[in-house]
Amino acid sequence: MMLIGIDPHKSTHTATAVDPGTNRDQASIRIDGTLQEYQRMLDWACQWHQRQWAVENARGLGHHLTSWLLARGERVVDVPPTATARVRQLSRGAGRKTDRIDAAAAACVAAVQGDARPVQPENSTDALALLDERRSNLAQARVRAVNQLHALLRALLPGGAPRDLSAAKAEQLLQTVVPVGPAETTRQALAADLITEVRTWDVKLKDNAKAMAALVAESGSRLTDTPGIAAITAARLLGRTGNPTRFPTASAFAQYAGTAPIEIASAGRAHHRLSRRGDRQLNAALHTVAITQIRMPGTRGHAYFQAKVAEGKTPREAQRCLKRRLADHVWRTMVGDERRRTRTTGPGGQPGATTASSAVGPTPTADSSDKSLPGPAETEPTRLHQTP
């Protein structure tokens, strides 16, 4: 097995072949960032029938090349730049930095099984992440247009416009305006343009929601079986999480999402506070689900919240406890879906896995195992709290 490390740049890439047995540089090639040059590098690498590519920052500057290699059946691992920097520091040469040395360092990290991670081809989860980012941009553009429209209508109408302003309502209000003078005429024309923009954003947001719902349904995710999780929220949870199996435990996922409380010591006693770390958009999605379940009598989330309040917790503390349990439930559901999908369509499935049946349950209720909250939840991925 020959390891081929790649140091990517915007316009050029350097590939260095390293023998994993001796960690010696065997050959190197430098190419431009074009499809023709990609093929030339692959032809050069074909002299080693068994090979693996180690791309530094495969999700950054090396993303396009990595996707191209994966599409042609090549095996690729991602090596973070911090790992290659450590290899250079520990090797001879006083930490010298060249493209060829960086490429060899990436291969060395992959050889010793350091921080290198296998890269999988892009799938529907990556598409959902793109749609979620696009939706955020569309929503921000719509809010900006509505705010500008509010400012213009405030100057044209006594009392301005109501807060829940839609394009249709703004058009009705604008029809009542009889402009006097060039300033009011200009405001009316600008308001009409903004109404057209708001309608455009509304159409794009609807199309975005339909695309999200189609991809979520195609993925077979059972997140939408949970009360409070519709297609758009499920798309954000899936897109922001990526492959859920990269988190070894539910606690690791909760920490990534920022729902795991942090223990601190103050005035001689230990207590917990809210974590402000983690993926804030993922945290916001879990917050939306928690608030929705709290407002839905009959759901297990509502019962869990009421039980925590009855124990003496404040509503905000009870809400944080629910978010923590929801993080566990969401992670288990996504892991179950991923394992079921792997068993069905991909290699390396585990026929004996049982997470698929255990992850379908709704939000856990407050039973005796929940008395320790807030705090780390149990890490067993195949169980879900059930009402005794």
UniProtKB/TrEMBL annotation:
<dbReference type="InterPro" id="IPR002525">
    <property type="entry name" value="Transp_IS110-like_N"/>
</dbReference>
<feature type="domain" description="Transposase IS110-like N-terminal">
    <location>
        <begin position="4"/>
        <end position="158"/>
    </location>
</feature>
<feature type="domain" description="Transposase IS116/IS110/IS902 C-terminal">
    <location>
        <begin position="221"/>
        <end position="305"/>
    </location>
</feature>
<protein>
    <submittedName>
        <fullName>Transposase</fullName>
    </submittedName>
</protein>
<dbReference type="Pfam" id="PF01548">
    <property type="entry name" value="DEDD_Tnp_IS110"/>
</dbReference>
<feature type="region of interest" description="Disordered">
    <location>
        <begin position="332"/>
        <end position="388"/>
    </location>
</feature>
<dbReference type="InterPro" id="IPR003346">
    <property type="entry name" value="Transposase_20"/>
</dbReference>
<dbReference type="Pfam" id="PF02371">
    <property type="entry name" value="Transposase_20"/>
</dbReference>
<dbReference type="InterPro" id="IPR047650">
    <property type="entry name" value="Transpos_IS110"/>
</dbReference>
